[in-house]
Specification:
about 300 residues; alpha/beta; UDP-N-acetylmuramoyl-L-alanine:D-glutamate ligase; 9-stranded mixed β-sheet; 4-stranded mixed β-sheet; about 35% helix; Ribokinase-like; transferase; RfaE_dom_I; Carboh/pur_kinase_PfkB_CS; heptose 7-phosphate kinase activity
C-alpha cells in the first residue's frame, strides 16, 4: 500500500453539503437507582460537544490535512452557534444558513462509566427559504473546490440534492454521496455513492451470494450513471464496483468500541484521497483503514493523517 499522500491532500479543497448536527455528550458516574423510577441516576461530571452529521465529515477532512468547507442549515439557537464555533476551531470554512424557524439537529447522549445509557434527539427540517439559500450558496462554492461531498442524514437539507449534483457536473467537480433511504434516483449523476450493507439491501433487495450482489450493484451503478459504487459491509470489509468489475478489501482487525460517525470518517478519507489523485480502489483502501481506526474511539471522532501513516 502506497504512503498516505499528505502533500497532495493538503492542496485539496473539499466542499461538504448536507445535514449538520451537534453531538452532545454528558459523562458521569452511576452509583444508585432513582427512588422515583427504576432507572440509574447519572451524576454528570463532564460535558462535551462535537460536530456531527455533515459537520463531522468536514471535521474529518480537516483532520486529514485537506482544506474543508461546510455548507448546511442550522437554527437560530445555542446549538447552531456552537456548531459555528466548533467548525472554526477545527479549521473548517463554514457557510451556515441560519433558519429562525427550526432547531439545530441535536443528539444528546448520557453516558455512565463510558456506556451510553440514553440518547435524546431534537430535530426539525429547514424551511423553503433556507433550502433556496443553501442551493444558491452551493452554486457559488462548488466551482472553487476539487470535490463535492454530499452527506445525507434525511434531515431535510438535501431536499433538492439533484440540483446540487447537476451543478457539480456542470462545473466538472466530482460528487461523493453518502446516501439515505432507498430512493437512489435522486443521486443520479454522482461520481460514487457509499451505502452501508443495510442501506444497499434497502435499495436493491437481499442478495443470495456475492455474484448476485455484483449483478444488483452493477445494475444500480449503470442506472444511476455512477463511476463507482462502494458498499461498506462492517466486519465483512468494503466492496467497490466500477466498470472494470468488483474489488473487495477485508476489514482491518480492530476492537470495536463505538461505530458512531464511522461512515463519516470513511466518506471523508475517500474524498481527500480521491481528490489527491488516487484511483478509486487505492482511495477505498485508505478509507477502510481509517474506518478501522475510528471505531476504536468513543463517540463521533476523527482520524488524522499521522494515525493512518
Amino acid at each position: 500500500m502506497m504512503p498516505f499522500p499528505a502533500v497532495a491532500v493538503s492542496r485539496s479543497k473539499v466542499l461538504v453539503v448536507g445535514d449538520i448536527m451537534l453531538d452532545r455528550y454528558w459523562f458521569g458516574e452511576v452509583d444508585r437507582i432513582s427512588p422515583e423510577a427504576p432507572v440509574p441516576v447519572v451524576r454528570v461530571a463532564r460535558r462535551e460537544d462535537r460536530l456531527g452529521g455533515a459537520a463531522n465529515v468536514a471535521r474529518n477532512i480537516a483532520a486529514l490535512g485537506a482544506q474543508a468547507s461546510l455548507l448546511g442549515v442550522v437554527g437560530a439557537d445555542e446549538a447552531g452557534e456552537k456548531v459555528g464555533r466548533l467548525a472554526d476551531e477545527a479549521g473548517i470554512h463554514a457557510r451556515l444558513v441560519v433558519d429562525p424557524g427550526m432547531h439545530t439537529t441535536l443528539k444528546m447522549r448520557v453516558l455512565g462509566r463510558q456506556q451510553q445509557l440514553l440518547r435524546v434527539d431534537f430535530e426539525e427540517g429547514p424551511g423553503p427559504g433556507s433550502l433556496d439559500g443553501l442551493e444558491s450558496q452551493a452554486r457559488e462554492l462548488i466551482g472553487r473546490h476539487d470535490m463535492l461531498v454530499v452527506s445525507d442524514y434525511a434531515k431535510g437539507a438535501l431536499a433538492h440534492v439533484e440540483r446540487l449534483i447537476a451543478a457539480a457536473r456542470e462545473a466538472r467537480v466530482p460528487v461523493l454521496v453518502d446516501p439515505k433511504g432507498h430512493a437512489y434516483r435522486r443521486y443520479r449523476g454522482a461520481s460514487i455513492i457509499t451505502p452501508n450493507r443495510a442501506e444497499m439491501q434497502e435499495a436493491v433487495g437481499h442478495w443470495a451470494d456475492e455474484d448476485d450482489l455484483e449483478r444488483r450493484a452493477q445494475k444500480l451503478r449503470r442506472e444511476l450513471e455512477l463511476d463507482a459504487l462502494l458498499v461498506t459491509r462492517s466486519e465483512q470489509g468494503m466492496t467497490l464496483f466500477t466498470e472494470a468489475g468488483r474489488q473487495h478489501t477485508a476489514a482491518h482487525a480492530q476492537e470495536v468500541f463505538d461505530v458512531s460517525g464511522a461512515g463519516d470518517t470513511v466518506l471523508a478519507t475517500l474524498a481527500v484521497t480521491r481528490a489527491a489523485g488516487l484511483d478509486w480502489f487505492d482511495a477505498v483502501l485508505w478509507a477502510n483503514r481509517a474506518g478501522g481506526v475510528v471505531v476504536g474511539k468513543l463517540g463521533t471522532s476523527v482520524v488524522t493523517a499521522g494515525e493512518l501513516s
